[in-house]
Amino acid sequence: MNFDYFIGIDWSGNKNHHQKNIAVAICSNDDESPTIQINPYYEKGAWSRTDVARWIESNWLSQCFALIGFDFAFAFPYCDCQSYFPYSDESPRNHYALWKEVDERCVDNTNFYGRSFFLKDSPYAKYFHLQGLLKGEKFDESNNRRRITEDNCHKYRSNPESIFNCAYPKQVGLSSLAGMRFLCHFYKKEPDLVAIWPFHFNHQNISTFVEIYPSLYYKRANYNRSNRLELVNKVLHFYSSNPLDEKCKLPTKDEADAIISAAALRYFSKHDKYWNPPEMDDTARRYEGWIFGV
User: Fold this and answer.
1) Cα dihedral value 232, 234, 235, 236, nearest 10
2) CA Rg, the chain, in Å?
3) What is the pLDDT of residues 260-288, one digit of tens each?
4) Chain centroid to CA 287: how far?
5) Residues paired with residue 25 on neighbouring β-strands, in sequence order
6) Could you give the CA distance from residue 72 to residue 64 in angstroms, rounded to a whole number?
7) What is the DSSP letter of 40?
8) Nearest-CA neighbor of 186 among 172, 175, 205, 200?
9) What's the pLDDT tens digit per position in 55-71?
10) To the nearest whole percent, how much of the chain has pLDDT over 90?
11) Residue 136 and residue 121 in contact, taking contact as beta carbons nearer than 8 Å
């Protein structure tokens, strides 16, 4: 697949609008090192999820085509129980119904925030654990569930967190719910201008969204996650990228994750096996999604 640019986005589910822990890195289709993109719509440079959507819509859906990676889960586990939320009559029937359900239940939450999805009056509250609230009655069961792509991360010595856990610093639940609202927004608004892999894929020139997992990309290069410039450059070398300038400002951990992800996207995109991983069966492709590079 040929893309003009590769963009790694270190995502966040934080309630705040503009936040330092959203980072965006970009590189072109050669061996140049990725660079950090600041928010052009906010004078202090920090990103909001709404501004990320605006930036993509303004720059990457017409003449320039980008492979854009987001650090959140594109769906909940499904294949193990043939349901996102077992024993619930309201469980969405497919990936788009899931995104739409999350978005509609959180319509009063601005900036793609997703907390309302599992509040007390929600039929899904019992599956989650949220800091400050009791564990849902089915959380202990759901906490052990993983998507097929997450199970396959273990061969790279990587262990993704449960999407149902929204309680601790390493939680990915809130960021994934915000991400599903984001995907729903683009699927409804720009269905012919962006592909969301692996659910929808167009081999023509079109910008494409994929799921990324920065910690995995460090592990594949035999390093642990870090923002030390020397280590970041070693990981970039593994992904056939030029290094960052030794005189450049030391990136934050979120910026380092975005930088490594952009380089990894460029590297993986050139190999057909990452577009068609043998472990991804049709049910996983249609219902759960896949981490690009697994």
Assistant:
1) 80
2) 18
3) 999 999 999 999 999 999 999 999 999 99
4) 16
5) 8, 36
6) 24
7) T
8) 200
9) 999 999 987 899 999 99
10) 79
11) no
Residue 63 CB contacts under 8 Å (≥ 6 apart), including other chains: none
Please state the domain extents for the chain.
Answer: 5-74+194-288, 95-175
Partner residues linked to 5 by β-bridges:
28, 66
Model pTM score: 0.96
What b/e sequence results for 222-249 when a residue is b if at least 16 CB atoms lie within 10 Å of its CB, and e otherwise? Answer: ebebebebebbbbbbebbebeebeeeee
Reported residue count of the chain is: 294
Smallest CA-to-CA distance from 70 within 253, 200, 197 is with 197
- CB 225 within 8 Å of CB 84: no
* Identity of residue 157: R
Which run of H or of E encompasses 152?
helix 148-152
Residue with tokens 């949220």: 130
Separation between Cα atoms, residue 158 and residue 156, nearest integer Å = 5
**Beta-ladder partners of 23:** 10
3-state DSSP assignment of residue 194: strand
Phi, psi of 61 (to 5 degrees): -120, 10
Picking from 109, 120, 121, 145, the residue whose alpha carbon sits closest to that of residue 130 is 120
| Beta strand extents in 65-204 (DSSP E only) | 66-70, 129-130, 165-166, 194-196
Strand intervals (E) in 47-155? 66-70, 129-130
